[in-house]
């Protein structure tokens, strides 16, 4: 299934006049406020978000899985799905693979396919939260943190293998998310678990090529419910520092206890030059992995404010690896990802509209009311015509979701792949 450019343009034609009208209105208003519209469009066009291979099928819950129809069953088909997203949005130009789910059969062919779609290979993810069918040992009692040296060695070796696979594809980073932890007090010694983890991560870091980065993800709970070895940003930060300059903390929006001030964590990590990766999703309670911006759009905007600010101010922080980390069992996964991509760009655009100069002035005067006015003025701006303009200028769709539906993409995928296909993933 391919999005034909001529059909896309046909769809665009029906909506282009409305877009031009809406765009001129916002652009005129913002220009009067001193916004550089061309610069803003350029930044939107440059912003590429990796799609995780596991988000292309319907995700499971702890209680079961309702598959979605026409899911991709091979890495090739997953890349094709991302190709669909990228053609429509022009902002999904990367894929993040999860090994062993996505081991390529033919490296040259898969690279060629990705290239054809304009997709690069972003961070590769390792998996030590499941036992593989041919495994000699089990991760039941932990992986990189295990008390058993041989289990730790197996987990380190797996991560090294993932790096080698990523290397062949042109990836430049490894993301480690550890499920290691305990369900009951007294189950394991905290200090030994942490020391073992540090030691294992250092070994993996040592195996990475010199131009690679290591991203260390944290999460307070789940799958373990009493303790998690890398439970918070402080632990991740500490481990990253222990590994070296090219090790960073990765913030996943869903990996915080309710009401955590994520924007402040972002600011602190960027100040220290240690924020390396970012996983977008939304949640009400925990690691819900819901559509970006569907529950707390204002929080996302405040987080983006710190990200934009940090990208400007903290040159000590590297360029970030952006990824959507979501997975559903209800929506069409591609429609969901289109919604997430739009929400990300929307928040990014709004954050770029914040009048930072006036904000600092109001802050220095202690004018709290004005500070809030400045933030909310940006947040309340309807930036959707700017996003549409940015992608249309690159050949994307005026309205990706509308076009996806008008083209009956899912039905075509079902016709090609069959109805009851199941993608590998979470
Ligand atoms: C598990 O919480 C998780 O959602 C992490 O966020 C990882 O990034 C992802 O799975 C893939 O391993
Ligand atoms: Mn994640
Ligand atoms: Mn997660």
Strand content: 5-15%
Secondary structure category = alpha/beta
Number of helices: 15
Binned, the helix content reads: 40-55%
Count of β-strands = 11
Which fold does the CATH topology refer to?
TIM Barrel
CATH class: Alpha Beta
- What count of domains describes the coordinates? 1
User: Could you say what the CATH architecture is?
Assistant: Alpha-Beta Barrel
The bound ligands are: alpha-D-psicofuranose, manganese (II) ion
Contiguous runs where pLDDT drops below 50 for at least 5 residues: none
Could you give the distance between the termini? 24 Å
What is the secondary structure topology, with strand pairs?
Layout: H1 5-32, H2 37-46, E1 50-52, H3 75-89, E2 94-96, H4 107-117, E3 120-121, E4 124-125, H5 149-169, E5 173-176, E6 181-182, H6 190-207, E7 213-217, E8 227-228, H7 233-243, E9 247-252, H8 262-271, E10 275-280, H9 297-313, E11 321-324, H10 333-352, H11 356-365, H12 368-379, H13 384-392, H14 400-406, H15 409-417
Helix pairs in contact: 1-13, 2-13, 3-4, 3-10, 5-6, 8-9, 9-10, 11-12
Bound molecules: alpha-D-psicofuranose (PSV) and manganese (II) ion (MN) (2 copies).
Alpha-D-psicofuranose binds next to loops.
